[in-house]
Write a structure and sequence with these properties.
Blueprint (H helix, E strand, L loop, with lengths): L1 H5 L5 H21 L7 E6 L14 H12 L5 E7 L3 H14 L5 E4 L3 H11 L5 E5 L8 H8 L8 E6 L4 H5 L9 H11 L3 H7 L5 H19 L4 E7 L9 E7 L2 H27 L8 H28 L5 E2 L4 H4 L1 H4 L5 H13 L17 E2 L3
Parallel strand pairs: 1-2, 1-4, 2-3, 4-5
Antiparallel strand pairs: 5-7, 6-7, 8-9
Helix pairs in contact: 2-3, 2-11, 3-4, 9-10, 11-12, 12-15
């Protein structure tokens, strides 16, 4: 019953992760599939769900099938490997695939991802792979996540998006309880790749958010250490700005271009999340009729604030007299307040203002990948 309730409607927190997937699948597949035999690209949806919510909204399954059809025109062959072990949910997923997945290469595994992952990885051998691990409970053990990068044919582009923290708070609460279940704590040890997380959590006392962040950061650091050459990006997913995160998504890739494209997707995902929140908050109030106009006005204000901040910070760097790339000055220019929020359109607008003001000789017109564009002082 709980699983059924979970899939009735898409909550605002789910909007973000699905918006990220929606905006990232095509750039990933089109780029990595350009050098793949037959344009093949694989996607493993490790906790697939029903494909669509009961109210008709797209889940990850419907999103992937839609992109698979669109990518076939490039052409790219997006091969979808769905893993879901709840029988009722599997039945709904199969119905969505039957209705929307004609011609799409796909596999449905109806057991737990921990059991089926080796088969799914073998099916994607030598093919670019994006794996999405979004459990209702704890994610698969750390060593299995590492195995995705060490898979057969693992030299092909491989990226993972993980929801790490589902149920972590509940299990971590046992650390200070006289009713701790050691087997449950050991399960978290497996997820985190050791019991290091226990001390990391306890170090922060009653500050549960700081404790959780320490575990998330520690997990990402250990993943980078095990998979050399890999970078990670962490998103904290909140029900509302200013509230504590519901969960954290960790993105892992070996390629700098993956980080850049994912950053664009995060920005678009956050925009979709803000829209969903605005609609939810206005529902049933006097603001409901005008919620979308109000949201667009707020987005316009945000855009202007971000561009103005970028102009100010870029101007400081330009005043130092040496050419630079934004990607090499991320700590000074993007900082924690803009990273993941701004994307190419904001960077382009800021650079254009500085170009027109005579602060740089770099004209952004016709350019792309603004993070890697060399900005030369005038």
């Amino acid at each position: 019953m709980a699983n059924q309730n979970f899939h009735e409607t898409k909550k605002a927190a789910a909007v973000l992760k699905h918006a990220v997937i929606n905006s990232y699948v095509t750039p990933f597949a089109s780029k990595t599939g350009s050098t793949s035999v037959g344009g093949r690209v694989a996607f493993i949806d490790g906790y697939a769900g029903p494909g669509r919510y009961d109210d008709g909204a797209e889940g990850s399954g419907a999103i992937l099938l839609r992109h698979a059809h669109a990518l076939a025109k490039i052409p790219r062959q997006l091969e979808c490997h769905f893993v879901e072990n709840d029988p009722g949910t599997v039945a709904k997923l199969r119905a969505v695939i039957a209705a929307e997945g004609q011609g799409v290469v796909h596999t449905v595994y109806d057991r737990d991802i921990a059991e089926e992952l080796p088969k799914a990885l073998a099916a994607a051998s030598g093919v670019p792979l994006l794996a999405y691990l979004d459990p209702c409970g704890l994610v698969i053990p750390f060593e299995q996540v590492v195995s995705i990068f060490e898979r057969p044919g693992g030299q092909a582009p491989t990226e993972v998006l993980i929801n790490l923290t589902a149920h972590l708070r509940r299990f971590a609460g046992m650390l200070t309880s006289d009713k701790a279940v050691e087997a449950s704590l050991q399960r978290v040890d497996e997820v985190c790749g050791g019991d290091w997380w226990r001390a990391a959590w306890l170090e922060h006392g009653e500050d549960k958010t700081a404790a959780e962040e320490a575990v998330v950061e520690g997990y990402a650091a250990r993943l980078r250490a095990r998979v050399r050459g890999m970078g990670t990006w962490t998103i904290d997913v909140r029900p509302k700005a200013g509230l504590k995160p519901l969960y954290y998504l960790i993105f892992a890739t070996r390629h700098p271009a993956g980080m850049v494209k994912f950053g664009e997707s995060v920005s678009l995902g956050l925009q979709a999340w803000r829209r969903a929140r605005a609609q939810d908050e206005a529902r049933g109030t006097l603001l409901e009729p005008s919620w979308e106009e109000d949201w667009k006005a707020q987005e316009a204000d945000l855009k202007e604030q971000w561009i103005a901040t970028l102009v100010e910070r870029l101007d400081v760097e330009l005043s130092k007299g040496a050419p630079f790339r934004i990607v090499d000055k991320a700590d000074e220019i993007l900082r924690s307040d803009l990273v993941g929020s701004v994307r190419g359109l904001h960077l382009r607008a800021a650079i254009d203002r500085l170009f027109k003001a005579g602060k740089t000789t770099t004209d952004p017109k016709g350019k792309s990948d603004y993070l890697f564009l060399v900005l030369t002082p005038a």
